[in-house]
Structure formats: C-alpha cells, structure tokens
Amino acid sequence: MSGADHTSIVVTGGSGFIGSRLLGALGAEGRCVVSCGRLTSPAELDRLEAALSRRSQDRVGLVHLAGGYRTGQPWAEVFAANTGSVGRALDALGPRLDHVTFLSSVAVYGAPGSAPGPDPGTAYGRAKRLAEQLLGLFRAATGRPVAILRTASVYGEGNTGTNAVALLTRAVATRRPFVVHAAPQGRDYVHVDDVIGAVRCAVDASFDGTVDVGTGRSTTPAELADMATAAGFDVDVWANGCPGATTAGRFRCDTATARTHLRFRTAIALEDGLVREIRWRRATEAER
Question: Can you tell me the distance from the alpha carbon of 207 to that of 262, in angstroms, rounded to the nearest whole number?
Fold first, then answer.
C-alpha cells in the first residue's frame, strides 16, 4: 500500500486478533485508518462520523472484520454480529464508500463432502453467507467493487480462537494433555500474517470477486501433534474415542483463484507458524 493513496480505510473489528495486527501494518505504512467495532451504538456511529469528518478524503474503503462466534451463542447474536454488522457499516459510510473488503469464512461451504458451492451447515456459516449476499446486492446497486475473502482457520501469535492449533499450543505451553477426538476433521490452517497479506492485496487492487484464503493443505489434529513433536516439543496426546477411527473428511482451500486473480499466495508454512504460536504461548504463560 502506498502512503500516496488518499483513501481513508475504515476497519471494523479493529481490536480483534486479526484487526489489531492489520491496524499495525496499515499504520506503519502511513495510511489514513479509522478503527471501529461493530457499530452497534449511536455513540460509536458518531465517533466514526467525527473521525471521517476530520479527514479531507472524499473516498472511503471498508475492511470489514467484525464478527465471530462463541460456543452456545444465541442465534440472534450470531446473525447480528456477522450479518447485521455489514448492513450497519454500509449504511454508516453511504455514498462515500469506494470499495469493500469483507472477511468471510470457509464455513460457508459446510462440511467436507457436502454439495458443491456454498452450503452452510452452521449458524455461523449461514450468517457469513448472508453477509456475502448482502454485499452482492450492494455491488449490484452501486457498481462498487467488493472483495470477499473466505478464510481458512486462522492461527498465529495472539490466537484467541478455539481451533485445533489454539488447543494444541495451549496444551504444549501449559503442559496439559492435547485431546484428539475420534474421527476428527482435516482443516486448512492459515497464519494471521498471510490473512493480512491477502487483505492488503485486495485493498491495493480494489479487488472485485471472491477467493479462498488458505494454503490448500488439510491437516488433522493428530497431524498437528506430530508436527509439534517433530519440532522438538513434548506433546501429551490423549485419544478420546475409538482406536483406529478414520478422519471425518478433509477440507482444503482452493488457492488457484487467489493466485490467478488476486495475485496472492500464502508465505508461512504450517510447521513454521505452529512453532511461532507455541513460542508465543510459552512467553505469554511465563509472564503470568
């Protein structure tokens, strides 16, 4: 990104795992950045408007990261966080909005082996898919480009999630067992710095389209444990289920579209990123 680009960038979810790192990267480049949350209150909307009014730029780019899901969260909250927040951001920025980059999820595809194309099987996946469709309506109505980035399971230093990488690195850092359930699913894991790289590519190019952001590699929890062991870490694996159970399907991102159209490919191998997260976890535990 160039400091000569006079577009203000509004980042929702700027205090989160991905958002905080993105803000650091954009700020280091001298970009005009406005950070906000989910825009759920009039006060937050007023602060956004005040921040934009202090800038001379007429154009605004939106990087929408706000969203998320926690186990047991009421369905209404899932949709409010992941779908409603998109509508609020579009309304707040109005005709100034020049480009949108939306961080979606591979959860829109559903479980491995489901019907081709988006087929969400969870409330979170459905909410993300509805947000994508809302942005499709925005694109059709305004002609503005919309980049939809369907991310794989994100990990890395600062990981606050509950994916298998987070569970494994916490187990190693705290010297507790890492539980591997029967018939686990193979997932694609992408480092947070690679996600930021994809966002930057989309914003730089005012990209219009939908791509997966991942490595194209599927890894089970047991395979993650093997990686950590091979890297020299002690991993106490507890098998919770029937011995010899098979993997319940594997998911991997389609990386071809991102390489061809977004000119993006991941740079951090899972083996290296896993070691980085373990070391970060250990440092974090040592400070407590």
Answer: 7
103 phi/psi in degrees, rounded to 5: -90, 100
226 and 256 in contact (C-beta within 8 Å)?
no
Q: Please tell me the total number of residues recorded for the chain in this structure.
A: 288
Tokens 């977004």 belong to residue: 262
Positive or negative, the CA dihedral 169, 198, 142, 15 is: positive
Helix, strand and coil in the chain, % to nearest 5:
45, 20, 35
C-alpha to C-alpha distance for 261 and 39, rounded to whole angstroms: 31
Least Cα distance to 264 among 254, 274, 251 occurs for: 254
pLDDT lower than 70: segments of the chain: 1-6, 56-58, 112-117, 182-183, 241-248
Query: Which residues contact residue 278 at a Cβ distance below 8 angstroms, ignoring those fewer than 6 apart?
Result: 169, 172, 173, 228, 231, 233
> How many whole angstroms separate alpha carbon 140 and alpha carbon 39?
24
Q: Could you tell me the domains of the chain?
A: 8-151 (3.40.50.720)
The pLDDT assigned to 288 comes to: 73
Q: Is the pTM of this model over 0.70?
A: yes
